């Protein structure tokens, strides 16, 4: 197993609560728990695979479709957005998340660089980054942030985490364009990761599937893949005027 058994149990519990499922839904050791891995929700399809267990939150029509064994065999893995879109038929859906869930319960080496806790330093990093990068990192949602300073004491990269279900620390990282590919993101993220562990939280990173940069960062931080998170949202139809 990629993390300690106790850590895996906490991850299962945290995700069950995040999704609004019963606490034991992801626990394969509990008889009948798997029946709680399906939930009816409107306007979205959410598939979370965790340690081999799969939860599906979706409209009634989607649950009816995947209840057919032949359909399941033909469509392929539900964690693949293309397969979810195929099952949606003519319904208008858009891919919101296609992510690999990674986590660790181990500390990483301290980067030994100056760290600023000043929110203004986070703003300095965001100021020089593209809007899409800022939106994806969403450091404004972090409860704790850390900014690595370069040799000139200028903000090079920012990292932070926000709590999930009271047990997990969802990491996010943003590196100034002039400091990318030089390890600054890893330095800032290392501080955030260790701080989360100090606070009794399990560091987690949901990285975009297929992102080589995010995969490399996760590898350097010791984050191990433990599942997938895929979500589609219904596209609201605009009525004609």
TrEMBL record:
Highest taxon listed in the record's lineage: Bacteria
Record-linked InterPro entries: Acyl_CoA_acyltransferase
Gene3D superfamilies, alphabetized: 3.40.630.30
Listed name of the protein: N-acetyltransferase domain-containing protein
Organism encoding this protein: Naumannella halotolerans
């Amino acid at each position: 197993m990629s993390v300690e058994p106790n850590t895996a149990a906490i991850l299962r519990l945290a995700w069950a609560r995040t999704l609004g499922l019963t606490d034991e839904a992801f626990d394969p050791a509990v008889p009948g728990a798997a029946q709680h891995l399906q939930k009816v929700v409107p306007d979205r399809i959410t598939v979370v695979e965790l340690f081999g267990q799969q939860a599906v939150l979706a409209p009634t029509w989607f649950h009816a479709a995947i209840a057919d064994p032949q359909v399941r065999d033909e469509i392929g893995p539900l964690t693949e957005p293309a397969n979810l879109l195929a099952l949606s038929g003519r319904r208008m859906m858009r891919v919101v998340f296609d992510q690999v869930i990674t986590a660790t319960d181990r500390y990483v080496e301290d980067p030994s660089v100056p760290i600023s806790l000043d929110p203004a330093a986070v703003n300095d990093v965001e100021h020089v980054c593209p809007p899409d990068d800022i939106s994806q990192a969403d450091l404004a949602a972090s409860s704790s942030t850390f900014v690595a300073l370069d040799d000139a004491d200028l903000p090079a990269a920012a990292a932070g985490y926000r709590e999930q279900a009271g047990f997990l620390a969802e990491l996010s990282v943003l590196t100034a364009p002039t400091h990318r590919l030089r390890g600054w993101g890893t330095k800032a993220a290392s501080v955030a990761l260790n701080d989360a562990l100090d606070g009794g939280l399990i560091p987690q990173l949901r990285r975009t599937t297929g992102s080589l940069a995010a995969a490399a960062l996760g590898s350097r931080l010791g984050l191990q893949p433990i599942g997938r998170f895929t979500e589609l949202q219904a596209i609201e139809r605009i009525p004609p005027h």
